[in-house]
Amino acid sequence: MESINALRKSALRRLRSIKHKEELRSFEVEFLGRKKGKLTAVLRRLGSLPHRERMSIGQEANTLRLELLEEINKKKNIFAEHAMQEILSKEAVDITFPPPKRPRGHLHPLTHIRLEAEEIFSSMGFSVIPGGPEVETEYYNFDALNIPSDHPARDLWDTFWISSRSSKVIDQKRKARGRSAFRVPTSKVLLRTHTSSVQVRHMESHQPPIRIIASGKTFRYEATDAKHDTEFIQLECLFVDKNVSVAHLKHTLSAFFQKMFSPKVAIRLRPSYFPFVEPGFEVDMRTAEGEWLEMLGAGMVHQQVLKNAGYIPGHWKGFAFGVGLDRIAMMKYKIPDVRLFRCGDVRFLRQF
Ligand code: PHE
């Protein structure tokens, strides 16, 4: 009986000082362990006692056992609660904390210029039509524009031709997708060298008055340098109506450049040659700093082109021009090398 009382005292004192789950476990083993537990040893010795003592001592020992088990359980719960509190405070989310900045994408500088140009022409009453296919037929890129295959002017546009096998595949795919094959099936296929390819394409399905712009990628098979790339963006403008003159062309162009750059800029037209216009011009712009820069090709739409579009000969007049948007972007943003636009270097692109 005495040793049980002593055991209770020492056990309860130990329990009070326990601060960790691990200590609690070794306490449990020390007192209640099956093999070497101190209380277990007392219970084991019961058998050697006389009957009456065995009853009273046994009862006492069992009470102690239950008491200890309950205390251990209480402590376990307290420890578990503490552990949970710790997790909760450590992993707490402060919903008032500002979120990390997410990098946002933005438009490419050429897209900015393209949108700006579209805005300007829209404000002048032009419709912005889809840019037309980049993979184009020889017909729309050349023949329809009064440049037959034996015409020396073809040398003006160094062309990426698409091999006849791929041309056939493209033709078949278009057919399979339920689109009509190219209008002129025998036509060879190329990467369009200018957006003028949209002129006859558009006029075939529309009647004058026509006031449209169309922009998109164009390609030239050329050595690249700071001013030339094999790929660039052109914007084509086509205006067809009854009494159209060079004055309309000149006004449209100077209004465009003044809105794009500054009211101070001026333009001048120099005679030039493109088979699809007559007369044809090279257009220069005088910058606010007084420097003349060559900007684009333009002219009055050649009657042969209007005829190729199916219009009654002599009935309509028009002007057209094609302007390189890379060039404009270079001037506006002061970019020294056209190849930067497509180099994929984010250090360049992040500046816009
Ligand atoms: N398509 C010509 C070029 O890329 C430019 C142009 C367009 C000239 C329309 C006259 C009329 O060189």
UniProtKB/TrEMBL annotation:
Q: Where does Mg(2+) bind?
A: 278
Matches recorded under CDD domains? PheRS_alpha_core
Molecular function GO terms recorded = ATP binding; magnesium ion binding; phenylalanine-tRNA ligase activity; tRNA binding
Spell out the reaction equation it catalyses. tRNA(Phe) + L-phenylalanine + ATP = L-phenylalanyl-tRNA(Phe) + AMP + diphosphate + H(+)
Q: What is the uppermost EC class here? A: ligase
Q: Which InterPro entries match?
A: aa-tRNA-synth_II, aa-tRNA-synth_II/BPL/LPL, Phe-tRNA-synth_IIc_asu, Phe-tRNA_ligase_II_N, Phe_tRNA_ligase_alpha1_bac, Phenylalanyl-tRNA_Synthase, tRNA-bd_arm
Cellular-component GO terms for this entry: cytoplasm
Q: What is its EC number?
A: 6.1.1.20
Aminoacyl-transfer RNA synthetases class-II family profile domain residues are 132-351
- Where does it live in the cell? Cytoplasm
> What are the entry keywords?
Aminoacyl-tRNA synthetase, ATP-binding, Cytoplasm, Ligase, Magnesium, Metal-binding, Nucleotide-binding, Protein biosynthesis
The cross-references to PROSITE patterns, in alphabetical order and at most eight, read: AA_TRNA_LIGASE_II
One GO biological-process annotation of the entry reads: phenylalanyl-tRNA aminoacylation
* Main location per the UniProt record: cytoplasm
* Keyword Thylakoid in record: no
Give the superkingdom in one word.
Bacteria
For this protein, what does the record note about how its cofactor is bound? Binds 2 magnesium ions per tetramer.
> Which cofactor does the UniProt annotation name?
Mg(2+)
Name the family the entry cites: Belongs to the class-II aminoacyl-tRNA synthetase family. Phe-tRNA synthetase alpha subunit type 1 subfamily.
**HAMAP family reported for this sequence:** Phe_tRNA_synth_alpha1
State the oligomer form and interacting partners. Answer: Tetramer of two alpha and two beta subunits.
Name of the protein this chain belongs to: Phenylalanine--tRNA ligase alpha subunit
Q: Which organism is it from?
A: Candidatus Ryanbacteria bacterium RIFCSPHIGHO2_01_45_13
Gene for this protein?
Answer: pheS
